[in-house]
Write a structure and sequence with these properties.
Elements (H helix, E strand, L loop, with lengths): L3 E5 L1 H9 L6 H8 L9 H18 L6 E5 H5 L1
Antiparallel strand pairs: 1-2
Length: 76
């Protein structure tokens, strides 16, 4: 039995909506003025992604898409 994960990717949502030439967490956070002081720390990056997600569902909720992958793909 293969389990399927459903997830939302804030980076893909940002890219699909704004079509930036360069896209990384820093670019996304700069756009929304989200602090990334201490970036590359798991807690800092996770909080930044959470704030980014909240901004995206506020600004363009109809463009937030769900993605699927198997557990195998998630850990590969």
């Amino acid at each position: 039995m293969i389990s399927i994960l459903v997830y939302i990717c804030t980076m893909n949502s940002f890219k699909d909506h704004f079509k930036p030439k360069l896209c990384n967490l820093g670019v996304c956070c700069d756009y929304y003025d989200i602090s990334l002081i201490g970036a590359h720390n798991a807690l800092v990056d996770t909080k930044a992604c959470a704030y980014l997600f909240l901004k995206e569902i506020e600004d363009f909720p109809e463009e937030i898409f769900y993605y699927e992958c198997s557990l195998w793909e998630a850990y590969a």
